[in-house]
Amino acid sequence: MNQDLERIMITEEQIAGRVREVAVQLDKLYEGRRPVVVCILKGSVMFFSDLIRHMETPLELDFMAVSSYGCGTTSTGCLQVKKDLTTDIAGRDVLIVEDIIDSGNTLYNLKKLLNSRSPSSVNIVT
Question: Do residues 59 and 33 make contact, with C-beta atoms less than 8 angstroms apart?
Answer without folding.
Answer: no
